[in-house]
Amino acid sequence: MNFKSIPSEFEYLSWPEVKNISKDIRSTIIWPFGAVEQHGPHLPLGTDSIFVDEIICEVFKLIPSDTPIKKLPTQYIGFSPEHKGFDGTISLSSNLITLLIKEVGIQLADMGFKRLILINAHGGQISLLNTAARELRSVAPKLSIFPCFLWKGVDGLSELLTKDEIENGLHASLAETSLMMALKSKLVGDERPCEGIKMQIPKGWSLEGNAPTAWFTEDLSKSGVIGNSKGSNKELGNSLKSLLVNHWFKLIMNLMKSDWPNQYK
Protein backbone atom coordinates (compact mmCIF):
# COMPACT_ATOMS: atom_id res chain seq x y z
CA MET A 1 0.00 0.00 0.00
CA ASN A 2 1.22 3.50 -0.82
CA PHE A 3 1.28 5.58 2.38
CA LYS A 4 1.32 8.74 0.25
CA SER A 5 -2.33 8.22 -0.63
CA ILE A 6 -3.66 8.27 2.93
CA PRO A 7 -4.15 11.13 5.43
CA SER A 8 -2.18 11.75 8.62
CA GLU A 9 -5.27 11.66 10.87
CA PHE A 10 -5.85 8.23 12.38
CA GLU A 11 -9.63 8.61 12.33
CA TYR A 12 -9.66 9.16 8.56
CA LEU A 13 -8.01 5.81 7.83
CA SER A 14 -9.72 2.56 6.92
CA TRP A 15 -8.99 -0.54 8.95
CA PRO A 16 -6.85 -2.16 6.22
CA GLU A 17 -4.75 1.02 6.10
CA VAL A 18 -4.25 0.89 9.87
CA LYS A 19 -3.31 -2.77 9.67
CA ASN A 20 -0.74 -2.09 6.98
CA ILE A 21 0.86 0.86 8.79
CA SER A 22 1.02 -0.87 12.17
CA LYS A 23 3.14 -3.67 10.69
CA ASP A 24 6.00 -1.27 10.00
CA ILE A 25 8.89 -1.65 12.47
CA ARG A 26 8.78 2.11 13.04
CA SER A 27 5.01 2.55 13.24
CA THR A 28 4.20 5.45 15.55
CA ILE A 29 1.14 7.23 16.89
CA ILE A 30 1.09 10.80 18.17
CA TRP A 31 -1.62 11.62 20.71
CA PRO A 32 -1.89 15.35 21.55
CA PHE A 33 -3.14 16.35 25.02
CA GLY A 34 -4.46 19.71 26.11
CA ALA A 35 -7.03 21.07 28.54
CA VAL A 36 -10.27 23.00 28.82
CA GLU A 37 -9.52 25.49 31.58
CA GLN A 38 -9.55 29.20 32.28
CA HIS A 39 -6.80 31.22 30.64
CA GLY A 40 -7.54 34.63 32.06
CA PRO A 41 -10.12 37.07 30.67
CA HIS A 42 -8.42 37.31 27.28
CA LEU A 43 -7.66 33.75 26.10
CA PRO A 44 -10.01 30.85 25.26
CA LEU A 45 -10.58 27.88 27.55
CA GLY A 46 -9.07 25.52 25.00
CA THR A 47 -5.75 27.41 24.72
CA ASP A 48 -3.50 24.44 25.52
CA SER A 49 -5.48 22.12 23.26
CA ILE A 50 -5.44 24.62 20.41
CA PHE A 51 -1.69 25.07 20.78
CA VAL A 52 -0.79 21.39 20.64
CA ASP A 53 -3.26 20.63 17.86
CA GLU A 54 -2.09 23.53 15.67
CA ILE A 55 1.62 22.88 16.21
CA ILE A 56 1.41 19.15 15.55
CA CYS A 57 -0.71 19.70 12.45
CA GLU A 58 1.98 22.07 11.16
CA VAL A 59 4.62 19.45 11.95
CA PHE A 60 2.75 16.85 9.92
CA LYS A 61 2.87 19.18 6.91
CA LEU A 62 6.66 18.80 7.01
CA ILE A 63 6.80 15.04 7.62
CA PRO A 64 7.18 13.00 4.40
CA SER A 65 3.83 11.39 3.64
CA ASP A 66 5.31 7.90 3.39
CA THR A 67 6.46 8.02 7.04
CA PRO A 68 4.57 5.44 9.17
CA ILE A 69 3.27 7.93 11.71
CA LYS A 70 -0.31 9.04 12.38
CA LYS A 71 -2.11 11.41 14.76
CA LEU A 72 -4.95 10.55 17.10
CA PRO A 73 -7.65 13.18 17.74
CA THR A 74 -6.48 15.72 20.31
CA GLN A 75 -7.66 15.01 23.86
CA TYR A 76 -9.14 18.39 24.71
CA ILE A 77 -10.29 17.87 28.31
CA GLY A 78 -7.51 17.11 30.75
CA PHE A 79 -6.49 17.26 34.41
CA SER A 80 -6.94 20.86 35.59
CA PRO A 81 -7.95 20.96 39.29
CA GLU A 82 -5.70 23.99 39.92
CA HIS A 83 -8.06 26.12 37.81
CA LYS A 84 -11.37 24.94 39.28
CA GLY A 85 -12.00 28.25 41.01
CA PHE A 86 -12.81 29.83 37.63
CA ASP A 87 -15.90 29.28 35.49
CA GLY A 88 -15.38 27.29 32.32
CA THR A 89 -12.75 24.94 33.68
CA ILE A 90 -13.58 21.27 33.15
CA SER A 91 -11.25 18.76 34.79
CA LEU A 92 -11.11 14.99 34.61
CA SER A 93 -9.70 12.99 37.50
CA SER A 94 -6.15 11.70 37.38
CA ASN A 95 -7.48 8.16 37.59
CA LEU A 96 -9.70 8.67 34.56
CA ILE A 97 -6.89 10.21 32.47
CA THR A 98 -4.58 7.34 33.41
CA LEU A 99 -7.24 4.77 32.58
CA LEU A 100 -7.93 6.48 29.25
CA ILE A 101 -4.27 6.37 28.25
CA LYS A 102 -3.92 2.75 29.31
CA GLU A 103 -7.05 1.56 27.51
CA VAL A 104 -6.23 3.33 24.25
CA GLY A 105 -2.54 2.42 24.49
CA ILE A 106 -3.25 -1.27 25.00
CA GLN A 107 -5.46 -1.32 21.92
CA LEU A 108 -2.82 0.43 19.82
CA ALA A 109 -0.24 -2.09 21.00
CA ASP A 110 -2.61 -4.94 20.12
CA MET A 111 -2.90 -3.50 16.61
CA GLY A 112 0.87 -3.73 16.32
CA PHE A 113 1.96 -0.12 16.73
CA LYS A 114 5.46 0.16 18.14
CA ARG A 115 5.61 3.70 19.54
CA LEU A 116 3.22 6.18 21.16
CA ILE A 117 4.10 9.85 21.64
CA LEU A 118 1.97 11.66 24.22
CA ILE A 119 2.54 15.31 23.33
CA ASN A 120 1.06 17.49 26.04
CA ALA A 121 0.63 21.29 26.19
CA HIS A 122 -0.84 21.65 29.70
CA GLY A 123 1.79 22.13 32.39
CA GLY A 124 -0.52 20.90 35.13
CA GLN A 125 -0.56 17.34 33.82
CA ILE A 126 3.10 16.75 32.99
CA SER A 127 3.70 14.47 35.97
CA LEU A 128 0.39 12.71 35.42
CA LEU A 129 1.23 11.75 31.85
CA ASN A 130 4.68 10.57 32.93
CA THR A 131 3.03 8.28 35.47
CA ALA A 132 0.36 7.10 33.02
CA ALA A 133 3.08 6.26 30.50
CA ARG A 134 4.83 4.04 33.05
CA GLU A 135 1.57 2.33 33.91
CA LEU A 136 0.79 1.74 30.24
CA ARG A 137 4.27 0.32 29.62
CA SER A 138 3.75 -2.14 32.48
CA VAL A 139 0.72 -3.66 30.70
CA ALA A 140 1.93 -3.14 27.10
CA PRO A 141 5.70 -3.76 27.36
CA LYS A 142 6.26 -3.90 23.60
CA LEU A 143 4.92 -0.37 23.13
CA SER A 144 7.46 2.42 23.60
CA ILE A 145 5.83 5.49 25.13
CA PHE A 146 7.18 9.04 25.06
CA PRO A 147 5.38 11.47 27.43
CA CYS A 148 6.46 14.92 26.19
CA PHE A 149 5.68 18.54 27.08
CA LEU A 150 5.23 20.91 24.14
CA TRP A 151 7.38 23.69 25.64
CA LYS A 152 10.11 21.59 27.24
CA GLY A 153 13.59 21.33 25.77
CA VAL A 154 12.93 23.82 22.97
CA ASP A 155 16.20 25.55 22.11
CA GLY A 156 15.94 29.26 21.48
CA LEU A 157 13.14 30.15 23.90
CA SER A 158 15.54 32.13 26.06
CA GLU A 159 16.40 34.26 23.03
CA LEU A 160 12.75 35.18 22.49
CA LEU A 161 11.52 35.42 26.08
CA THR A 162 12.88 37.26 29.10
CA LYS A 163 14.15 35.37 32.13
CA ASP A 164 11.20 36.75 34.09
CA GLU A 165 8.72 35.35 31.56
CA ILE A 166 10.39 31.94 31.53
CA GLU A 167 10.47 31.74 35.33
CA ASN A 168 7.20 33.49 36.25
CA GLY A 169 5.01 33.43 33.16
CA LEU A 170 3.20 30.30 34.24
CA HIS A 171 -0.24 30.85 32.75
CA ALA A 172 -1.84 33.03 30.06
CA SER A 173 1.18 35.29 30.12
CA LEU A 174 3.37 36.84 27.39
CA ALA A 175 4.28 33.65 25.53
CA GLU A 176 0.83 32.06 25.49
CA THR A 177 -0.93 35.29 24.59
CA SER A 178 1.50 36.01 21.76
CA LEU A 179 1.27 32.48 20.38
CA MET A 180 -2.52 32.61 20.36
CA MET A 181 -2.35 35.97 18.57
CA ALA A 182 -0.33 34.23 15.85
CA LEU A 183 -2.52 31.14 15.63
CA LYS A 184 -6.07 32.42 16.21
CA SER A 185 -6.02 36.17 16.79
CA LYS A 186 -9.82 36.46 16.77
CA LEU A 187 -9.94 34.44 20.00
CA VAL A 188 -7.74 36.90 21.89
CA GLY A 189 -9.43 39.59 23.99
CA ASP A 190 -8.17 43.10 24.63
CA GLU A 191 -7.22 42.78 28.31
CA ARG A 192 -3.57 42.20 29.26
CA PRO A 193 -3.41 41.32 32.98
CA CYS A 194 -0.23 41.19 35.01
CA GLU A 195 -0.77 39.20 38.18
CA GLY A 196 0.43 36.46 40.49
CA ILE A 197 4.16 37.13 40.15
CA LYS A 198 4.89 39.02 43.36
CA MET A 199 4.14 36.25 45.84
CA GLN A 200 6.47 36.09 48.83
CA ILE A 201 7.58 32.47 48.53
CA PRO A 202 9.82 31.13 51.33
CA LYS A 203 13.50 31.14 50.42
CA GLY A 204 14.49 28.02 48.50
CA TRP A 205 10.89 27.16 47.57
CA SER A 206 9.03 27.86 44.33
CA LEU A 207 5.76 27.55 42.48
CA GLU A 208 7.32 25.26 39.88
CA GLY A 209 10.94 24.34 40.45
CA ASN A 210 13.19 22.21 42.61
CA ALA A 211 10.96 22.54 45.68
CA PRO A 212 7.46 23.32 44.39
CA THR A 213 4.08 23.67 46.04
CA ALA A 214 0.73 22.32 44.84
CA TRP A 215 -0.73 25.77 44.14
CA PHE A 216 -4.18 26.69 42.94
CA THR A 217 -4.55 29.64 40.58
CA GLU A 218 -7.01 31.36 42.90
CA ASP A 219 -4.23 31.42 45.53
CA LEU A 220 -2.23 33.69 43.23
CA SER A 221 -4.51 35.57 40.89
CA LYS A 222 -7.96 37.09 40.59
CA SER A 223 -7.84 37.28 36.80
CA GLY A 224 -6.55 33.75 36.25
CA VAL A 225 -3.32 35.02 34.74
CA ILE A 226 0.00 34.13 36.37
CA GLY A 227 2.60 36.35 34.77
CA ASN A 228 2.67 39.47 32.65
CA SER A 229 0.71 39.40 29.41
CA LYS A 230 1.51 43.05 28.62
CA GLY A 231 3.59 43.47 25.50
CA SER A 232 2.18 40.38 23.81
CA ASN A 233 2.36 40.62 20.04
CA LYS A 234 1.79 38.59 16.90
CA GLU A 235 5.41 38.85 15.77
CA LEU A 236 6.63 37.14 18.93
CA GLY A 237 3.87 34.57 18.50
CA ASN A 238 4.99 33.74 14.98
CA SER A 239 8.57 33.33 16.17
CA LEU A 240 7.42 31.00 18.96
CA LYS A 241 5.33 29.02 16.48
CA SER A 242 8.30 28.53 14.13
CA LEU A 243 10.53 27.51 17.02
CA LEU A 244 8.03 24.93 18.29
CA VAL A 245 7.23 23.49 14.85
CA ASN A 246 10.89 23.15 13.88
CA HIS A 247 11.84 21.64 17.23
CA TRP A 248 9.17 18.95 17.16
CA PHE A 249 9.66 18.20 13.48
CA LYS A 250 13.36 17.52 14.06
CA LEU A 251 12.73 15.53 17.23
CA ILE A 252 10.02 13.37 15.66
CA MET A 253 12.03 12.73 12.50
CA ASN A 254 15.05 11.74 14.61
CA LEU A 255 12.85 9.11 16.22
CA MET A 256 11.31 7.98 12.94
CA LYS A 257 14.75 7.48 11.39
CA SER A 258 15.86 5.32 14.30
CA ASP A 259 15.17 1.71 15.20
CA TRP A 260 14.44 2.52 18.82
CA PRO A 261 13.79 0.36 20.69
CA ASN A 262 16.36 -2.17 19.48
CA GLN A 263 14.14 -5.15 20.20
CA TYR A 264 12.16 -4.33 17.05
CA LYS A 265 15.13 -4.70 14.70
From TrEMBL:
It is an enzyme of class 3 (hydrolase). GO terms for biological process: riboflavin biosynthetic process. Its cofactor is Zn(2+). InterPro entries: Creatininase-like_sf, Creatininase/forma_Hydrolase. GO terms for molecular function: creatininase activity; hydrolase activity, acting on carbon-nitrogen (but not peptide) bonds, in linear amides; metal ion binding. Its EC number is 3.5.2.10. Keywords: Hydrolase, Metal-binding, Zinc. Belongs to the creatininase superfamily. This is Creatininase. It comes from Prochlorococcus marinus subsp. pastoris (strain CCMP1986 / NIES-2087 / MED4).
